[in-house]
Amino acid sequence: MIYKYDSMTELFLLRDFVTIFGVAVGIAFLFHHLKMAPLAGYLIAGVLLGPSMLGIVKDTGLIEVLAEVGVILLLFLIGVEFSLDELIRMNRTAFAGGVLQVVLTSAAVLLVALSSGLQFEKGLFAGFLVAMSSTAIVFKLLSDRGEIDSPKGRLSAGILIFQDLSVVAIVLLLPVLGGKSGLSAADVALNIFLALVFVGIAIVVARYVVPLMLYRVVRTHSRELFLISIVLICFGTAYLTSFVGLSLALGAFLAGLVVSESEYGHQAFSEILPLKDVFSILFFVSIGMLLDVGSVLRYPGIILLAVLFIIAVKFAIGALVPMVLGYPLRVAVPVGVALAQIGEFSFVLSKEGLGSGLISFDDYQVFLASSIITMVFTPFMIQGSGRLSEFIERLPVPDELKMGRLHEDVPGREDLNNHVIVVGFGLNGRNVSRVLSASGIPFVVLELNPETVRSEKKRGVPVFYGDASKEAVLEQANIMTARSIVIAISDASATRRVVELARRLNPSVYIIARTRYTSEVTPLYSLGANEVIPEEFETSIEIVSRVLQRYFIPADEIDRHIGDIRKDGYEMFRNIHHRYTVFPELKEHLPDIEIETIRIGDASPLAGKTLAEAGLRRGFGVTVLAVQRGKQTISNPSGDTQVLAQDVIVLIGTKDSIARAASQIMPPAK
After folding, report:
1. Of 574, 597, 613, which residue constitutes the final position of a domain?
2. Could you say which of 550, 574, 598 is where a domain stops?
3. What is the CATH number of the domain that holds 238?
4. pTM here?
5. What is the pLDDT of residues 618-656, one digit of tens each?
6. Contact present, 401 and 323 (Cβ < 8 Å)
7. Residue 416, C-beta contacts closer than 8 angstroms, at least 6 positions apart
């Protein structure tokens, strides 16, 4: 049957697109102001616009096709971002985590299904459906929150990618589960072998063919030719995978890995990104359109129980897997939350199962409704995962779970003195550690990636597995005698916790924290950080430097401009001068002298007293150089100067004397 488009059909199609993107703009605007992820809104919009509610969008079939294009582009970009080398580096931990998550979740659902009287084949199929989580939603949320490079982000990503890869085997098993005649175990094994051969060919092509082809294309200096070539690689690979039983989306992911191996991966990412965003909106809206609201109204109790069961089981197993692998609760709980929804590949599998008789139409609608509801809740659950983690850690949980099974004591801790603690061994942590080692400065590294710890120890790096947001771990690293602590991790909530703990355990330690955005600077300073380096701000400085170099501005002038920007910017961030010109000269001639700044809390015994009444010089041997009160600076204050709550005082003295004074000025939190 040939489907003919007339002018009215084209007009209706255009109307549907205008409606979808008009609603998408409104939802994105509303959710932006509510500080909520718009993905949930797109799903809700699909339900409202679909045939079972308002019925505004008529041609849902075409929308579904375009949505599949969106999934292909999304997985292609994920592949470009990861690269084969990074996927290989995910190695045993992520692979083991993925196997455990898929097997345990499928087994749990199968047991419940069998106890309910369901056939083994249908129960196992239901387990496969529930085991899948949403790569699209979780990747986007973690990227938006800047947590994709954190331990919980890396582990979640590894498990999600393993799930996507496991879809290959599941799809090949569906005919056997559906009882199709003529299929044997040998046929399934052959199909799996062909799929693996295809993946192997893709890797070979990635290494040798694609870089050469793209080099030829780039030499033409034609942006259009480059874009067309990238689209051809993306959709061509996806199309070819269908011949060996792989899904189109998985083929697109392999295509992304292929392109990532060339030096043009970043350019390909930027070219495809706008298309991906448009088609991804169509994907989430189309998923909402699939929902039959009538079925929801017929089975509200069953759907509610299904939603609660899915979230509870997937959260429990998702959190259990990291703990089995040795990760602490602070990582395990957010990973469990991130995986506690149904994924987009489950919709693909459910359609296949519907055709194979593994799921009835009514069960399909219940599954669809439950899945969409879990997707809608995901942005809110991930947003609250940090608070949930803190709540669970306050419960009477064994220390082994809080610290992680792989936690290890730092040997020779009694010899650590006047050292630097480096938290995190990513790019920033590596660079800091390399310079410290070359300079002969003692240091110790705390890292949560067990593979990194294992490999770097072999290279002689003093790195240990430990969660620096735990008081006992910082004590193991001798925070009390440390001179500085450098926090170079991507987890904003963990960074705040480490700053607060470090300042409380050692009031005189110099805290340098790395953060992603300038909006996170003020909270870190208020918790006691001495220096906060926002990557967003430093990136802007580097951009300014590169632009000026292109115009042949002398290096000394560039340095002066950069210095002015840093001075103005960091003074704006912290609202107080931390650098005193006298300090370098004092340190040169009086190496035992320290200068420290301390904020007077509301509960501080110093609040409301004069400096003479406080007796800091007489009691502790420290002198107050200045008092910062809002925008006012009181230099060389007299004994009659009254210190108020929220003032910042600048002390000079020895490290021990400042530490003793600080312990009185800042009493430990109750």
Report:
1. 574
2. 574
3. 1.20.1530.20
4. 0.65
5. 888 888 888 888 778 888 888 888 888 888 888 888 878
6. yes
7. 410, 442, 444, 477, 478, 481, 482
